[in-house]
Structure formats: C-alpha cells, structure tokens
C-alpha cells in the first residue's frame, strides 16, 4: 500500500502544481490519495482520496492513521448506512433465535424501536458520536415515557445503553464502524437509582399474614412454593409433575413460562445456573402432594394436564396460567394495606410472593428473612 500528500485546488479540485492552478486559482488545500490494493475480489485496484487538510503535516498524519487501520484490518469504507437500516435490516435479524432467547430478542428489538430509532434512526451510522447518545439518555430520563408522564428510570436507560452498545460493537466487528461511540457515552450511574429510593420489600410478618389469608386460594401452593424456595415466577408456573421428586424431596427447574409479545409460552431457563435442583422442606412437599391429590380427583386425566401443560393449569381443558396472571376471586389475599407495593419483580433468593393493591400490576417481593412461616397441613391444601 502506498500513498502521498499533495496540494488540491479549492476551485476546480484538480491537483495543484506550481504557484497557480491551470484554472487560474491560487487557493489550495492539502489532500492525500492511498492505494489500498485489490480489495474488491474482482482484481480492480482500490484508491481512497481524502482532502480538506489545512497543512501538509495534517494530511500526512491522516494518511499514516489510515494505513495503520488497513494494516490491522480495521479500515472501514465510508457509506450512507443509517442506524435504522443497520438495526432493522442487519443486526436484529442476525442476533435472533437461536443466538438469543426469543424473549430476550423481543425485548432488545422492542427497546430499540421504542426509544432509540425515533430519535436517532435517520442518523448515519458512521456519524454517531458519544454526544448523540448522551443527549438521547438525558431525554429518556426526563421525558422518555410514551404516555407523556415523565421520564424513564436510570435502570431502563442503562438497559437501552447496553443493547445499543452491543449492536454498535457488532457493527465494528462487521467492518461498518471504526470505533464504538457507545464505549465513550455516559449512561446513568448505578448508584443514582440506589440514592433515589431504597428497595421496598415485605417483612416476615407481612408474608405470614399474606399466606394465612391466601390459604384458601386455589393457587396457594404456588405462593407457598415461591416463598419457600425463591423460585422465579416463570419457574413456578412452568413446573411439571415430572420435575418434582417427592422421595428426596426436590424440584428440578427445567423450563420457565414467559410472555413473549403478549403470547404466553414455555421456554428454557435463561442461564445454565438457572437449570438447577432445589431441595424442598417437608411442609412444601406436603403442600404439593395435597395439591396433586386434589387435581387428580378433579381431573379425569390427572397426570396428563400436569405433564403437558405445567402443574398450574386450573382445569383439564384450560391453557396454563399466563405469566402475569392475578387470580380472580382472591379477595382474601390482595387489596389490603397490609401488603404494600414492592419494587421487586422477580423471585430473587430469598423471595416472597405478593400482590399489589387492586388495579396495579402484581409483583414479587424479596424478603430479608429466608425462613418461611410454618403452616399446618389443614390450611395448606388448595382447592
């Protein structure tokens, strides 16, 4: 590869030789042309011209930087690809299942389409700078909610930043960008959310009160299991009888039940560590055994519904409960000021199941105590 710097006429853009251009202009800038060799696969030589430098030193410095990128296979040719075209036509289809879990893929594409593309979609991919991303994050924090009621949480903005950073990193790896502007952007710090408010969780007394009042609810076994094992909501709903070993007793987490684009479906656990075995205490095993006995009596096919659909299916012909299900008729287990809203939406260990006030989204509450209140078998059987 060879290249050289030269003067270029500001008028006719021709190579400037002598004191005056052939067009009569005496004004010029510095430029360089570099021969990149045969890079098209068709035997044609590829040359690149860069101009507009104020001095010869600037042109030669830029020439050395370009040659360095070529030597290290990092040279990126200029193109007019927009961020929206890159994400919609290349990145989102490329990272879809089986590369990502379908629920993760749907979440990634949804966040990009809701928050990134409306603001930056028309921008050229190679024109993106850290400042563009910082302004986007600031706007999301102040007025990012689609209902117009304020901004998004720092956690959501960091999540969008993580997705966008991954997408732009792939653009660099695929030869569409020289460097990732998201690496130099400044998403909200993690400590901002911690300073804004403390995590609200249930106390052991609130959990005990909830389980007492939920004892007659047909989904009480699910509440008890969540409280005693720390299983995630989707793991509880995805549990099958074939995953339960009453002799040990233990539970094998082999599938989850999630909602993808509003369609509930079974899925594999997110990580290898999520596929685990959980020991059951004797009381939890009795609760499940009583539940199974009731199901077998009330379901002509008994084992079939639990095997094929998951043990949470309330009726023989019904589909499994949706991941966001809040049981109807559970007036004894929700709607009380004894159960304040929790900030937790998963069953992170140690965890407790809860309901928010009527009309609000159900959430799942971690608790400082890992001890589950003991209950007698007479109050732990669900109907």
Describe, in plain words, how this protein is organized in 3D.
The chain has 383 residues and is α+β, with helices and mostly antiparallel strands. The chain folds into 3 domains: 2-71; 83-196, Orthogonal Bundle (DNA polymerase, domain 1); 204-379. It contains 11 helices and 10 strands. It has a 3-stranded antiparallel sheet, covered by helices on one side. It has a 3-stranded antiparallel sheet with strand order 4-5-8, with no helix packed on it. A hairpin with a 6-residue loop joins β2 (28-38) and β3. α2 runs antiparallel to α3 (102-120) and α8 packs antiparallel against α10. The radius of gyration is 30 Å and the shape is elongated. It starts with a strand and ends in a 17-residue tail after the last strand. The model is unreliable at 302-309, 311-320, 326-337 and 344-383 (pLDDT under 50).
User: What percentage of amino acids are in beta strands?
Assistant: 5-15%
Low-confidence stretches: 302-309, 311-320, 326-337, 344-383
Number of domains: 3
Assembly state here?
A: single chain
Cα distance, first to last residue?
A: 79 Å
Q: Using only CA atoms, what is the Rg? A: 30 Å
Percent of residues in helices comes to 25-40%
Count helical runs: 11
Q: What's the main sheet like?
A: 3 strands, antiparallel
Averaged pLDDT, please?
76
| Strand order within the widest beta sheet | 1-2-3
The assigned structural class equals alpha+beta
Give the SSE order as H and E letters. EEEHHHHHHHHHEEEEEHHEE
Note the overall shape. elongated
Count every beta strand, where a strand is a DSSP E run of 2 or more residues: 10
């Amino acid at each position: 590869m060879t290249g050289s710097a030269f003067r270029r006429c500001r008028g006719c853009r021709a190579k400037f030789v002598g004191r005056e251009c052939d067009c009569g202009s005496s004004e010029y800038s510095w430029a360089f042309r570099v021969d990149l060799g045969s890079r098209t696969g068709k035997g044609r030589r590829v040359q690149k011209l860069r101009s507009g430098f104020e001095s010869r030193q600037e042109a030669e410095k830029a020439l050395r930087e370009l040659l360095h990128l070529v030597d290290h296979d990092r040279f990126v040719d200029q193109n007019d690809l927009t961020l929206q075209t890159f994400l919609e036509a290349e990145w989102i289809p490329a990272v879809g299942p089986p590369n990502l879990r379908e629920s993760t893929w749907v979440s990634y594409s949804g966040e990009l389409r809701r928050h990134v593309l409306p603001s930056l979609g028309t921008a050229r991919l190679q024109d993106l700078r850290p400042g563009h991303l910082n302004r986007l994050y600031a706007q999301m924090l102040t007025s990012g909610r689609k209902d117009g009621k304020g901004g998004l949480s720092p956690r959501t903005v960091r999540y969008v930043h993580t997705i966008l950073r991954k997408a732009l990193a792939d653009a660099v790896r695929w030869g569409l960008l020289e460097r990732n502007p998201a690496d130099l952007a400044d998403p909200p710090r993690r400590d901002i959310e911690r300073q804004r408010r403390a995590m609200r969780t249930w106390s052991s007394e609130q959990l005990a009160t909830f389980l007492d009042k939920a004892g007659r609810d047909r989904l009480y076994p699910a509440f008890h299991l969540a409280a005693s094992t720390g299983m995630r909501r989707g793991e509880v709903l995805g549990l099958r009888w074939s995953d339960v070993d009453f002799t040990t007793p233990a539970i094998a987490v082999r599938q989850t039940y999630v909602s993808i684009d509003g369609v509930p479906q079974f899925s594999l656990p997110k990580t290898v560590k999520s596929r685990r075995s959980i020991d059951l205490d004797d009381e939890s095993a009795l609760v499940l055994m009583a539940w199974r006995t009731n199901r077998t009596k009330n379901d002509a096919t008994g084992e079939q519904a639990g095997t094929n659909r998951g043990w949470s299916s309330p009726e023989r012909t019904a589909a499994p409960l949706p991941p966001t299900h809040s049981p109807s008729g559970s007036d004894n287990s929700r709607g009380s000021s004894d159960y304040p809203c929790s900030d937790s939406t998963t069953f992170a260990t140690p965890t407790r199941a809860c309901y928010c006030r009527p009309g609000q989204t159900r959430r799942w509450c971690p608790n400082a105590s890992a001890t589950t209140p003991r209950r007698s078998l007479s109050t732990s059987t669900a109907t």
